[in-house]
């Protein structure tokens, strides 16, 4: 089966047709989605959604939510993980990390705040023996610094777009690299070269739906200026995105499917019980 290792099925973009979106993904061969949470207010809903659809989930505070997050949320996270300790669908702490792309998050205060929340959540993950799902936009070196300082039991660097050396550093920490719609763009030559050159054992597939639409769903700035909405990404796109990766690497897509499924189960070990269930 295909595993979408990063899919925000709980996002408001799916409020009107969530059931249909999940059913279409299943129809396309996506047997499992990992739903990473982005803020404390969503943790209960994410857990419920995963149970309802036979999917997996992660709990955490996304760096884009750092401005609203309270220190209290870290204690609530600790409690939520303890409560869910026996829940086989809880597979990681995430989505956590650092974002230095959004200008409002780059002030000295917000950089400090993001770092505080990131490191604290790494500690929580380690205490619970859970892997991490990492957001690394324009922040790869500092994210790696946190991993080296605190340590982790593995996980995924999601929407990876760094150098081969940085990729190798994540692999040495026991993580896989998440690839998705970004590599479908003809102009993404650097990312494509990376997806082509890394060992297949380092890769997992993801959509990040509803975000990061593949090229065939993407609406250009001009189209949007003329009134088109940005194309919504869905987990059903995963096999077609993986086909692009297979073509880049000159492999049968079935081999990409088998390898990335095995990789996902290696870095998020609790997935295995769900896959074989
Ligand atoms: Zn995400």
Give the spatial strand order of the biggest sheet: 1-2-3-4-5-6-7-8
Extended strand count:
8
What is the end-to-end distance?
A: 12 Å
**Helix-residue proportion:** 40-55%
Q: Which ligands occur here?
A: zinc ion
- Poorly predicted spans: none
Which series of helices and strands comes N to C? EHEHEHEHEHEHEHEHHHH
Total helices: the number is 11
Question: Radius of gyration, rounded?
Answer: 17 Å
- Averaged pLDDT: 96
Strand content: 5-15%
Mind describing the biggest β-sheet? 8 strands, parallel
Overall SS class:
alpha/beta
What's the shape?
globular
Secondary structure: elements and pairs:
Layout: E1 2-4, H1 18-27, E2 30-36, H2 43-53, E3 56-59, H3 71-83, E4 90-97, H4 108-127, E5 132-135, H5 140-150, E6 155-158, H6 164-172, E7 175-179, H7 189-197, E8 203-205, H8 221-225, H9 238-249, H10 253-267, H11 271-275
Parallel strand pairs: 1-2, 2-3, 3-4, 4-5, 5-6, 6-7, 7-8
Written account of the structure:
The protein is 43% helix and 14% strand. The protein contains eleven helices and eight strands. Helix 4 links the parallel strand 4 and strand 5. Helix 3 runs parallel beside helix 4 and helix 4 packs across helix 5. The model has no long low-confidence stretch (mean pLDDT 96). Bound molecules: zinc ion. The site of zinc ion has 5 residues, from loops. Zinc ion binds next to loops.
